[in-house]
Specification:
221 residues, alpha/beta, two-stranded antiparallel ribbon
Length: 221
């Protein structure tokens, strides 16, 4: 459902006050910026809460849906989400559902896959000695970082990812993460500490739905 006005601030541009300091709704802040350079990939553009198989991950689904319903409070507290579990359990679908749900309320949220952004950043650094891609990620007010942990082991990858998360942490920008690993196994302690401080942890427990689909196609279910 799309809204004529932001459903969190009703078009006022303000959602709360922290003491005497007004907290501006991100819908107002983001209208001053150009469109996100990190749109959803084609596969996830139609992902919503309503077409997610909630029975597979009822607790995770309820937690993420409640987060969006209470986005105003979570935005004031600068809390994001860390969705983690095995492959094929629907983490990215729910992350994309967040993007689409916020978009319906006139709030922009970017989406990147770790592997894609690191490849692009390294190509830019090799050619231009700097990375606009990393800078753009650092300055996106709301951002999904998909599949964090896939970069484990490479010092350059860790350095780039650390600079990205560090910058967002200092700016107090909200980040939504997905990972196949538990937080302590995702990356170096410096990164995981920042994620832990600024995220609600959401575990997933179901089996790989892609394997189930394959079995059904082969008549093995």
């Amino acid at each position: 459902m799309a809204y004529d006005k932001c459903r969190f601030c009703n078009g006022s541009g303000l959602i709360a006050k922290r003491g005497c300091v007004p907290v501006h709704c991100p819908c107002e802040a983001l209208t001053l910026l150009s469109g996100s350079k990190f749109g959803l990939p084609e596969k996830y553009r139609k992902c919503t809460f309503s077409n997610y198989q909630a029975d597979r991950e009822r607790e995770a689904y309820d937690t993420v849906e409640k987060y969006v319903e209470e986005f105003t409070a979570n935005y004031v507290d600068r809390l994001g989400l860390f969705l983690f579990g095995g492959v094929g359990c629907g983490k990215t679908h729910l992350a994309a559902a967040i993007v689409n749900s916020l978009a319906a309320s006139k709030i922009r949220c970017g989406f990147i896959a770790v592997s894609d952004i690191l490849l692009k950043a390294k190509a830019e650094i090799y050619k231009y000695k700097k990375s606009d891609a990393i800078y753009d990620c650092q300055t996106e007010r709301l951002l999904v970082i998909d599949d964090i942990g896939c970069e484990r082991g490479g010092d350059w990858d860790l350095e780039l990812l650390s600079s990205l998360i560090d910058a967002r942490y200092r700016k107090r920008y909200i980040t939504f993460y997905t990972s196949n690993y538990e937080l302590q196994d995702t990356s170096v302690e410096r990164i995981t500490s920042r994620i832990a401080e600024t995220s609600i942890l959401v575990p997933f427990h179901s089996k790989d739905y892609r394997v189930e689909i394959l079995k059904n196609r082969m008549g093995l279910s």
